[in-house]
UniProtKB/TrEMBL annotation:
Top enzyme category: transferase
Origin species: Thioclava atlantica
Membrane-spanning segments: 26-45, 51-71, 97-115, 121-139, 146-164, 176-195, 220-237, 243-260, 281-298
Name recorded for this polypeptide: Protoheme IX farnesyltransferase
Localization per Swiss-Prot or TrEMBL: Cell membrane
Pathway recorded for this protein: Porphyrin-containing compound metabolism; heme O biosynthesis; heme O from protoheme: step 1/1
Keywords, ordered alphabetically: Cell membrane, Heme biosynthesis, Membrane, Transferase, Transmembrane, Transmembrane helix
The protein's role, per its UniProt record: Converts heme B (protoheme IX) to heme O by substitution of the vinyl group on carbon 2 of heme B porphyrin ring with a hydroxyethyl farnesyl side group.
Organism placement in taxonomy: Bacteria, Pseudomonadati, Pseudomonadota, Alphaproteobacteria, Rhodobacterales
């Protein structure tokens, strides 16, 4: 009897399980890039309004994560890296996750619209819809281009932040969007190279599964070469400057070097060192994106103290 009650207690949902549904690591990227988009926009926002806006953008990102976990519960039960998530582990039911995600979606979009402007609230609603319906429900299971097109959802936050400040879209916000949009494929394909068995077992048509690792390596290099000039060109917009430009040149040179190394490796080499190069490229890609947005933030700070050049 005591064993049964222990199991029941162990399977009960905890506060941390609902936090896990929000995908906090993904949310941190959403919050940071949205914050940068808001801060570098030309129209100043009151600090309290800015704080509230970022809070509701974060909740919207978390709502997307909860709805993603609700729909992908079957996949998460199969993949090794996701089996311990709240739903496959049995601590949160699919119905609870769905209700949680829908409630947060409605609250975040409505409150963002009321606190800032209608356009930003609608933009957040569209982002949630794109991630949950277009990417999760359709593209993820239908095409190896899932992460390419679906990556747009993760690239919208800086545009939403910009919209909070300006009420619209501009070349600069599109540049930030493209930076994340073009970064997403090489970032996730590097992960897929050393996680191929997970996607294969879950029947997710990731490029490594449908076209093989060699084709994936070519695509990583191709997208990296497309990304680099876009990243550097952002330095010549109104939100760029010499600090950002120097950061972009160095980071993209290193990113291209890593992509070339991945492209030139055989499967025998990768398996021999347990995909060390691919893992190194994946983790560097996180630093790469953070460095670009941190440099944009620094440029804005320098301009406020009269040290901006552009």
């Amino acid at each position: 009897m005591s064993d049964i009650s222990y199991i029941q207690q162990d399977n009960e949902a905890r506060f941390s399980d609902y936090i896990a549904l929000l995908k906090p690591r993904v949310m941190s990227l959403v919050v940071f890039t949205a914050f940068v988009g808001l801060v570098v926009a030309p129209v100043p926002v009151h600090p309290f309004v800015g704080f509230v806006a970022i809070l509701f953008i974060a909740l919207g990102g978390g709502a997307s994560g909860a709805l993603n976990m609700w729909y992908d519960a079957d996949i998460d039960r199969v993949m090794r890296r996701t089996r311990s998530r709240p739903i496959p582990a049995g601590r949160v039911t699919e119905r609870e996750a769905l209700g949680f995600g829908l409630a947060l979606s409605g609250i975040s979009c409505l409150m963002l619209a009321l606190a800032t402007n209608i356009f930003s609230g609608l933009f957040l609603a569209f982002t949630i819809f794109f991630y949950v319906v277009v990417y999760t429900m359709w593209l993820k299971r239908a095409t190896p281009q899932n992460i390419v097109i679906g990556g747009a959802a993760g690239a919208f936050p800086p545009m939403i932040g910009w919209a909070v400040s300006t009420g619209g879209i501009a070349v600069e916000s599109v540049a930030m969007f493209l930076l994340i949009f073009l970064w997403t494929p090489p970032h996730f394909w590097a992960l897929a190279l050393f996680m191929k068995s997970d996607y294969h077992e879950a029947k997710v048509p990731m490029l490594t599964v449908t076209h093989g690792r060699t084709k994936t390596r070519r695509n990583i290099l191709a997208y990296t070469l497309i990304l680099a000039p876009v990243a550097v060109a952002t330095g010549f917009t109104s939100i760029g400057g010499p600090l950002y430009l120097a950061t972009a040149i160095v980071m993209n040179a290193l990113f291209i070097k890593g992509a070339i190394e991945i492209h030139g490796r055989s499967e025998a080499q990768a398996e021999a060192d347990k995909y060390a190069t691919e893992k190194r490229f994946f983790y560097f890609s996180l630093i790469y994106l953070f460095a670009h947005f941190a440099a944009l933030l620094a440029e804005e700070g320098l301009s406020h103290i009269g040290l901006g050049v552009w």
